[in-house]
Amino acid sequence: MATNTDLALLEETLLKHPNKYKVLILNDDYTSMEFVIDVLMKIFHKNYEQARNVMVEVHKKEKGICGIYTHEIAETKIMQVHKNARESGFPLRAEMEEE
User: Residue 59: CA atoms inside 13 Å, Cβ hemisphere, count?
Assistant: First the structure.
């Protein structure tokens, strides 16, 4: 027979949301601002104004938040940033931090 503690633990386990991760773009001295805006629009589905604001944040604060995702989606977005940057000859980097 299940106790109240068992039921509470089961409910907590079933209702637990996955951890979320911030995807950050890192500033560098070589990647063009236009390329960063393009990446933000293509990969993170930002409109031009949102992308420009994130790009300015990256420029001023050395990094900027592109979005918050589950671990797997954050990893995929980072890989897409790195692939696009390499193909375009830029050293642009992205990373994730647990929220």
Answer: 14
- Beta carbons of 67 and 18 less than 8 angstroms apart: no
pLDDT of residue 29: 93
Q: Where are the domains of the chain?
A: 31-98
Mean predicted lDDT score pLDDT of the chain: 92
The residues, any chain, with a CB within 8 Å of residue 70's CB and separated by 6 or more, are 18, 19, 20, 21
Whether the predicted model's global pTM rises above the 0.85 cut: no
Amino acid letter, residue 12: E
pLDDT per residue over 20-36, tens digit each?
999 999 999 999 999 99
Q: What gap in Å lies between CA 30 and CA 13, rounded to an integer? A: 46
CATH architecture classification, 31-98: 2-Layer Sandwich (3.30)
Q: Which whole-number Å values give the CA distances from 24 to 3, 10, 45, in the listed order?
A: 44, 35, 15
Residue in this structure with the two tokens 């637990």, named with its chain if needed: 16
